[in-house]
Amino acid sequence: MSTINIVRKPTWRVQPSVKFQFDYWMLLAVAGLLVLGMMVVYSTTFDYGVRFWDDATYYFRRQLIALLLGIIGIIGIMQFDYHIFRVLSVPIMFVTLAGLIVVLFFGEQILGAQRGLYEGSYQPSEVAKLATILYISHWLSSKGERIKLLTYGLLPFSVITGVVCALIVRQPDLSTAGLIAIISFSLFFVAGADWRQFALAGLVGGAVFLVLIFTLPHAAERVDAFTAGWRNPELAGWHVQQALIALGRGGLFGVGLGNSTQKFGPLPVAHTDGAFAILGEELGLVGALLFIGLMGLLVWRGLLAARRARDGYGALLALGITCWLSYQALINIAVITAVIPFTGIPLPFLSYGGSSLLVTLLGVGILLNVSRDAALEKKRVRRTQRVRA
């Protein structure tokens, strides 16, 4: 009993000797993704910088600031036991909801949606991805077996997820709302929800999503363009056509870093939604597979951290962040390769966007924290077993 009390004592701070013990495979994956990302950001934005700011590095420097802030955030997160986010998840969620409400009244238009503040440098919907994972993980892990009950499980879960998604849909940003819903449902299932509740939630959520797709004009247009493209590739949406041309031009080894022609007009928003297409054009199939491989390594280490976590909260937290990054990457790549209708969702690490990169790195910091704790717990268990032997 004394050992359990020591482990759960809410001191929050970790021992100085373990503050910077990392999962080096995970760190290697993140470092590789950041290097690729910064190269693609510069390649896709130097033209915009010259045209609009007379400075080829303008957007690169903004992204670099977000990167440095993210690294500082990771260093800060590694100073504490990740269980501190149990306490912080509620205020973080309230602040995020407030931001989502404020942006509806005072936000700036970004690609047809009212989603940004301060010249688009702060997007509450990006923060909402991580905030929802923090809150849902805490909420689900505190319910235990009661999650199988309708009044303790499905109903409050639906309200929590529904409020966040509804505010984001109002921007409108259906793709981000859908992503948050899928992540939340994944955590709900893994936490032990009754299968009938999960099936009911899936049916209702899917029905609502389909209604929104065919009700919101911009979503319906994208679905129409997607179905037309299946019948005749020449009728596919302009964005999809140009993305496929970029991937085709890249071939096996690409046309060379910085030598893309699609980013100079033919491919809209190449620095955000089309980043993977430009990577494929400039570095070819090899570059695209390198990115996918690094993402796969990150996902593997994230799932391993979730499996080894010392408690349900850590497992849900690691799983939620891993699902977030993997689902978002899969959706973006599926759009670029014309597998699903076009959505304006950025590619983690590769797409330009300070809010997206900063929040992604904060999520990585939490994932590294859970992974470190899981490794230390494994060492403690082995040490105890040797002593008993």
Total domain modules: 2
The largest sheet, given as strand count, sense and whether it forms a barrel, is: 2 strands, antiparallel
Low-confidence stretches: 1-9
What is the overall pLDDT average? 85
How many beta-strand segments? Answer: 2
Strand pairing plus helix content: what structural class? mainly alpha
Sketch the topology as an H/E string, one letter per element: HHHHEEHHHHHHHHH
Output the strand order for the largest sheet.
Answer: 1-2
N→C terminal distance: 20 Å
Residue share in helix: over 70%
Strand content: under 5%
CA gyration radius, whole angstroms: 22 Å
Number of helices: 13
Features:
two-stranded antiparallel ribbon; mainly alpha; 13 helices; single chain; 71% helix; 389 residues; globular; 2 strands
Brief digest:
This protein has helices spanning 2-8, 24-53, 58-77, 84-106, 124-143, 154-169, 174-190, 195-215, 217-231, 238-250, 275-308, 312-336, 354-388; strands at 108-110, 113-116. The protein is mainly alpha-helical.
